[in-house]
């Protein structure tokens, strides 16, 4: 088995019900933060971590996602003719090399574990990454790159981890810690969406994973877990019970849950404020809104 991680799975077959009716016809991953779709952030993060092959697990209605990665010769020629170099560069960045991108269908939304399992033949017998594009992480060094570097020293399954407030823990996969070494923690158990009061810690799993191919074997049983879905967390927890190493990685960076409306709006504001061309206008507007809100109270 080779040790370098060059393949990433992007599970995007979910129905995105929290964003209905928008997601009736627009895939959630195509919704944009300012002017770049969520999926572009995920692709850029993967590239920075050394990923060369991009595997999308899709479902019906995700055609716009496939189109997004297509080359657009007419558009590129037009931007070139008009001398719009920056925009041309942006558009070229969305192009994927031939053969670098693959799509596979998950025919029924049976859960994240099942979506990952659908990609087993495309990954084969090597470690791989999983990126959930609705978790956006703003970081100086991209989160997946931080994890790949830690993985090189500590091979084994690794999940991105973050402390979350106690009253939110039961919406996440949660780690039971064996040893805490700061950014790296070794894990002795994992539970998906624990009942309130039964959470082993408040260290939650965020949507970045580095996994060994043994995970596909664990998922073969197609056992359902929390919410009646086939859970990736359960397949990773099985690694621990079978005596293999599992780690949590406390990444440096700010995570936005863009699968929720509130997280998506916060990310939009935060990314817009980090843009020199938008910052002043938006800041002025936000001050006005806050002042009006205060005055109305
Ligand atoms: P979510 O739990 O956020 O579900 O999935 P969702 O369908 O995207 O959104 P809501 O909750 O209905 O609003 C987390 C990730 O796992 C993928 C989703 O596409 C998302 O990237 N997923 C989930 C699958 O690919 N297949 C599944 O069966 C379930």
Could you please describe the fold and organization of this structure?
The chain is of the alpha/beta class. The protein has a single domain, classed as Spore Coat Polysaccharide Biosynthesis Protein SpsA, Chain A (Alpha-Beta Complex), CATH 3.90.550. The protein contains 11 helices and 13 strands. The chain has helices at residues 38-48, 63-68, 73-81, 85-93, 112-118, 120-123, 143-153, 214-219, 232-241, 261-273, 279-296; strands at residues 7-11, 32-33, 36-37, 53-58, 101-105, 128-131, 135-138, 157-163, 173-181, 184-192, 203-211, 246-250, 254-257. The strands form 3 sheets. The chain has a 9-stranded mixed beta sheet, sandwiched between helices. The protein has a two-stranded antiparallel sheet with strand order 2-3. Strands 7-13 form a two-stranded antiparallel sheet. A hairpin with a 2-residue loop joins strand 2 (32-33) and strand 3. It is globular and about 60 Å long. The relative contact order is 0.16. The mean pLDDT is 93. The structure holds uridine 5'-triphosphate (UTP). Uridine 5'-triphosphate is lined by residues 11-18, 28, 57, 106, 109-112, 114-115, 132, 134, 259.
List keywords for this structure.
single chain, 297 residues, alpha/beta, Spore Coat Polysaccharide Biosynthesis Protein SpsA, Chain A, nine-stranded mixed sheet, two-stranded antiparallel sheet, 11 helices, 35% helix, globular, binds uridine 5'-triphosphate
Relative helix content: 25-40%
Q: Widest sheet: strand order?
A: 5-4-1-6-11-8-12-10-9
Q: How large is the share of residues in beta strands? A: 15-25%
CATH H-level name... which superfamily? Spore Coat Polysaccharide Biosynthesis Protein SpsA, Chain A
Low-confidence stretches: none
Distance between the termini: 63 Å
| CATH architecture annotation name | Alpha-Beta Complex
Q: In CATH terms, what is the fold-level topology?
A: Spore Coat Polysaccharide Biosynthesis Protein SpsA, Chain A
> What ligand molecules are bound, each kind once?
uridine 5'-triphosphate
* Annotation field: number of helices: 11
Radius of gyration: 20 Å
**What is the helix/strand order?**
EEEHEHHHEHHEEHEEEEHHEEHH
Tell me the total number of β-strands. Answer: 13
Q: Characterize the biggest β-sheet.
A: 9 strands, mixed
- Under CATH at level 1, the class stands as Alpha Beta
Q: How would the global form be characterised?
A: globular
Mean pLDDT: 93
């Amino acid at each position: 088995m080779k040790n370098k991680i060059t393949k990433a799975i992007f599970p995007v077959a979910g129905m995105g019900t929290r964003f209905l009716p928008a997601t009736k016809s627009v895939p959630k991953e195509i919704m944009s933060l300012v002017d770049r779709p969520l999926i572009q952030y995920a692709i850029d993060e993967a590239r920075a971590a050394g990923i060369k092959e991009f595997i999308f697990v899709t479902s019906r209605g995700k055609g716009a996602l496939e189109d997004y990665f297509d080359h657009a010769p007419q558009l590129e020629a037009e931007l070139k003719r008009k001398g719009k170099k920056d925009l041309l560069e942006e558009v070229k960045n969305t192009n994927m090399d031939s053969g670098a991108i693959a799509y596979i269908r998950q025919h029924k939304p049976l859960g994240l574990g099942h979506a990952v399992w659908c990609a087993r033949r495309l990954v084969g017998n090597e470690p791989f990454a999983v990126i959930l594009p609705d978790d956006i992480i703003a970081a100086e060094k991209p989160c997946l790159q931080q994890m790949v570097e830690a993985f090189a020293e500590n091979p084994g399954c690794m999940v991105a981890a973050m402390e979350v407030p106690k009253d939110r823990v039961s919406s996440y996969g949660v780690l039971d810690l064996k040893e805490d070494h700061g950014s790296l923690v070794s894990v002795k158990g994992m539970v998906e969406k624990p009942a309130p009061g039964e959470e082993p810690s408040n260290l939650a799993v965020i949507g970045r994973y580095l996994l060994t191919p043994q995970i596909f074997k664990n998922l073969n049983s197609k056992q359902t877990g929390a919410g009646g879905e086939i859970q990736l967390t359960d397949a990773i927890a099985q690694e621990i019970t079978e005596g293999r190493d599992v780690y949590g990685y406390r990444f440096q960076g700010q995570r936005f849950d863009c699968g929720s409306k509130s997280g998506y709006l916060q990310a939009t504001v935060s990314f817009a404020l980090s843009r020199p061309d938008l910052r002043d206008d938006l800041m002025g507007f936000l001050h006005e809104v806050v002042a009006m809100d205060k005055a109305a109270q």
